[in-house]
Amino acid sequence: MTVEMAYQYLYTGALVILAVLIGLLLIRSAIGPRITDRILCINMIGTLVICSIAILSQMLQEAYLTDIALIYAMLSFLTVLVLASVYIRKEEQHG
Fold first, then answer.
1. What's the angle, vertex CA 88, arms to CA 47 and CA 31, rounded to 5?
2. Given CB 3.0 to 4.6 Å as the disulfide criterion, which of 11, 29, 51, 91 pairs with 59?
3. Contact between residue 22 and residue 31 where contact means Cβ atoms under 8 Å apart
4. What per-residue string of b and e applies to 55-83 under the rule 16 or more CB within 10 Å gives b?
């Protein structure tokens, strides 16, 4: 077994594990009894997608995927901020 082949197995295994975790988080976000659970699941899914893109960047030797991962990180962060601010405003109106 060569080192390149070992890295391919490592990257593929990591991507499979991340895909399973993303699936479980999707289920958790649908089941989550509170809106905070759903917001946290969305944040975690974003983080795992960023990790997946970074692993694909290394696996495929494509540097532009790293830029895409950084842009996705910014969008994911802004999405969580917007969702949290909407939720906080809704709570202040009802509370």
1. 55
2. 11
3. no
4. bbbebeeeeebeeebeebbeebeeeeeeb
In tens, the pLDDT along 51-89 reads: 999 999 999 999 999 999 999 999 999 999 998 888 878
61 vs 32: CA distance, rounded Å: 38
Q: Report if pTM > 0.85.
A: yes
CA distance 53 to 66: 7
Query: What total number of domains does the chain contain?
Result: 1
What domain range is 43 assigned to?
3-94
Structure tokens at 37: 């659970």
pLDDT at 60: 94
The pLDDT assigned to 95 comes to 63
